[in-house]
Amino acid sequence: MWLASSRFGAGGPTISAKQDGPERLHVRIAKSGLCSRRAAEKLIEEGRVEVNGKIVIEMGVKVTLDDEIRIDGKAIGIARHYTVLLYKPLGVLTTLDDPDRRPTIVRYLPDYGVQLKPVGRLDRDTEGLLLCTNDGELALRLAHPRYGIEKEYLAHVEGVVGEKALKKLRTGVFFEGRKSAPAQVEVAHVDEEKQITALRITIHEGRKRQVRMMCSGVGHEVKQLKRVRIGPFQLRGMRAGECILVGQKEVKELRKLVGLN
Ligand code: URA
Known about the structure:
By secondary structure, this protein is of the alpha+beta class. The chain folds into three domains: 2-7 and 80-146 and 233-257, Pseudouridine synthase I, catalytic domain, N-terminal subdomain (Alpha-Beta Plaits), CATH 3.30.70; 17-75, Structural Genomics Hypothetical 15.5 Kd Protein In mrcA-pckA Intergenic Region, Chain A (Roll), CATH 3.10.290; 150-230, 2-Layer Sandwich (Alpha-Beta Plaits), CATH 3.30.70.1560. It has six helices and 18 strands. The chain has helices at residues 25-31, 37-45, 136-143, 163-171, 210-217, 248-257, and strands at 6-7, 23-24, 49-51, 54-55, 62-63, 69-71, 74-75, 83-88, 117-118, 127-133, 151-158, 174-175, 178-179, 184-191, 196-203, 222-230, 233-234, 243-245. β9 and β10 (127-133) form a beta hairpin. α1 crosses α2. The longest helix has 10 residues, at 248-257. It is elongated, with a radius of gyration of 21 Å.
């Protein structure tokens, strides 16, 4: 398991999208954060991409940082990617803009001059680990259930959870038209006096209010919810509101985990 890498203020940010040598044109376009690799291939096919003033429509062309790339005549930048881990406090919205001016995650994110977007979301009344990045490719894959990134939660629920409910949580709970995918569910603690059970729930999906829906679906309302892990990243050791830059090495490993190089 990885713990946090560099904390802000300790040596400045690490840039995670360093390019070592020539790379394929569609990869470079995707890395600029404009679109996915597949969409970049489509742009090339459509004759909308220029390299050093010449339209390129064949696949497999390699470019370096010295090549000037334009899409529909507009130059693309050299992306600097930043990936951070935020301990989202309770009461804070996972959005970059709230028309009602309620507290959002923006106040906790560092200003790198790029837009760091949250990967998935945590409800306002859920606290815990949230990954934010301007690496569009990485964000897309991390959010996709196909890549099976685990999200682990500590849920305090009403009542003492019995074996039947546990089995249902593990095998799948039907809500909003379909069953949840199999989940790992363990009892972390039971407080018989207060009639509260602490459950450790690990899921791969990211449906809206998923953990709450699963638990209420088996008759146990969630009283408190905290995300304690995303893939290899643990919340342990972080303070509410703290934001940590993920180091270059960890970003590389994370990209590998979702099939990116
Ligand atoms: N499941 C929920 O119910 N809420 C969250 O914020 C995350 C997962």
